[in-house]
Amino acid sequence: MDDLVVVxxxxxxxxxxxxxxxxxANGDPxxxxxxxxxxxxxxxxxxxxxxxxxxxxxxxxxxAIVKLEEVADAGAAERLRGAELMVxxxxxxxxxxxxxxxxxxxxxxxxxxxxxxLGQVIEVLDRPANDVLVVEAADGGPEYLVPMVKSYVVxxxxxxxxxxxxxxxGLR
Length: 172
Prior knowledge:
The protein is mostly beta strands and 172 residues long.
């Protein structure tokens, strides 16, 4: 099996029949409706495979409402709060050109347009206006925050594991 990637985190319980409120890891709560099973990682417990039944078209306040076959009631659902739901990367839907899953960007080296290494992307923040790259500075200084907008991000090259950004005032 290929690498597992997190598609969502259980943030609460919906109703009394074991339905889960899941915060999607990549913005759109509808994006993973094709998923038929997930691996569930709850804290230090070993991951276990669970069949998924997507409840109607339920999306509430940006959260997906899902039902796992093995979770029978609200008590069992509550014990999964904080659990991560993962799927093999190869099963994710293809994204349109220019869109990326967060896990694809983490670990990329970040350069400015002159070829200077700024650091490495350590996280992607999902924000309402646009995603933000968190770049750990190569020189050990404070992290860079780079908005994922065309005026800042010049190029993303997944094959060579690099992102090129325009260096601007305020970007250390």
